[in-house]
Amino acid sequence: METAVVWFKTDLRISDNETLLKAIEQSDQIIPVYCFDDAHFECTKYGFKKTGSIRAQFLLESLRDLDENLRNIGSGLLIVKGKPEIEIPKIAKQFSAQKVFSKREVAFEELQTEKLVQEELLKVNCELETFCTSTLYNTEDLPFTLKTIPDVFTNFRKKTENEAKIRTKFKPPETIKSPTIPALKLPSLEELGLEPISIDSRAAIQFKGGETEADKRLMHYFFETKLLSTYKETRNGMVGADYSSKFSPWLALGCISPRTIYHEIKNYEKEYGANESTYWLVFELLWRDFFRIMFKKYQTKFFLYSGIQTKKENSKSLNESLLWSWINGTTKSDFINANMLELKQTGFMSNRGRQNVASYFCNELNMDWRIGAAYFEQELIDYDVCSNWGNWAYLAGVGNDPRGHRYFNIEKQAADYDKQMEFRNLWLTNK
């Protein structure tokens, strides 16, 4: 009997999941597995956890939902904890699996882990096969080779939009044949070395992990409220659940795919008409693709102080008191403080806020941008390695911005985007 392991990572869904469908097609039975990688819960060299409590809670909710969805069609989710290069081959050996199917990685640490798993699987006569499940466009459909992909987004976007097609999405499987999968046993936050948390009641939205919740959010933002039609005008908002789509946490864990969102945008346009706003959401999904491809192209460079630029500068030193004033929202800028308090207490921050606090960190506090990026990695509920480090490098002037160093006038930004001080009053007034 052909047995395969499906190693879930940041693709926690059953719809539009090529990895899962290919495993079902090629096997008699499958074993869905998620591994809590010990490395994801350690501290980085910058002194922050790789995964903070809020993001971990969202992950636990997403895994609970995935298990439920798998059980509805005859399977379930097996949970292991440790090093993937030890745990995944152990599962493969236990079930005499011939193949492990998983999502294809592009960032350096994730690729190193993938390589280690592949090497260990070969020792138990098992193959690893990977699939592109995180992007709007499949890499092989793009009109460039990896070497010739433009480093400027506009050039990449124009050629891609003109010459590449977005594939149709995969339907969810109707049934899965699996041996009996024991009842789901998730670790607690404490077992992951994290503190229990409660999200501040002022949060823009109370995020809950999982494909079911992602689908609900999509239906709400598109068809129930038709907010998609005004997205471009409202996306720079800062207060409330509906100024932007808020899809990012579910996209980061793969509870929903960019292609699913794209095809629902097309359905929406057929019913309610296309405009700049409906296009703009696709435009932003393409940015995600771009950063992912840049990581494939440049590997470790996005984690260097000089980023993907060739200029060499001495890294800026750390000023502990300035760093903690930024983290705790006690800087000289009330606009920065309000945004940083929102992040600390909810795990979320608006796009407008992110650009401002990053600019402030790099230009006003004059510190190494990677420290800020590492703090975001710990705190953001929607942390995605490529988008986070790619955006920070961009703001620091060492990434893909053709204009180089980017500086935000914080006072002007506050006056433009929080004119009535609604956002600042919300976060700077004691509850």
UniProtKB/TrEMBL annotation:
Domain Photolyase/cryptochrome alpha/beta residue range list: 2-136
Keyword set includes Flavoprotein: yes
Keywords for this protein: Chromophore, FAD, Flavoprotein
Cofactor (UniProt): FAD; (6R)-5,10-methylene-5,6,7,8-tetrahydrofolate
Co-factor: note: Binds 1 FAD per subunit.
InterPro entries (alphabetical): Cry_DASH (IPR014133), Cryptochr/Photolyase_FAD-bd (IPR005101), Cryptochrome/DNA_photolyase_1 (IPR002081), DNA_photolyase_N (IPR006050)
Role played: May have a photoreceptor function.
Similarity comment: Belongs to the DNA photolyase class-1 family.
Name used for this protein in its record: Cryptochrome DASH
Organism: Flavobacterium taihuense
Origin organism lineage: Bacteria, Pseudomonadati, Bacteroidota, Flavobacteriia, Flavobacteriales
